Amino acid sequence: MSVTGRCQICERAEATHSCPRCGTADCDDHWNDGHGVCDDCAASSP
After folding, report:
1. In this structure, are residues 14 and 3 in contact, taking their beta carbons and an 8 Å threshold?
2. Is the pTM of this model over 0.70?
3. Which of 4, 20, 22, 37 yields a CA-CA distance of 20 to 30 A from 45?
């Protein structure tokens, strides 16, 4: 799936990921590769 637009967390960088848990568009700086979700969702994971 193609992601376009700005990161919905920082609103500055280009979004390159889409979080499958919350649906936000996220840049590389706000993406957690280890969990495969945005940093916000990764922080709330048990």
Report:
1. no
2. yes
3. 4
> Residue 19 in contact with residue 26, Cβ under 8 Å?
yes
**Cα-Cα end-to-end distance for the chain:** 27
Tokens of 12: 């500055």
Q: What is the pLDDT along the chain (46 residues), one digit of tens a residue?
A: 568 899 999 999 999 999 999 999 999 999 999 999 999 999 997 7
| Block residue for tokens 């945005």 | 38
CB-based contacts of 11, cutoff 8 Å, min separation 6: none
Partners of 39 in the β-ladder: none
DSSP 23: -
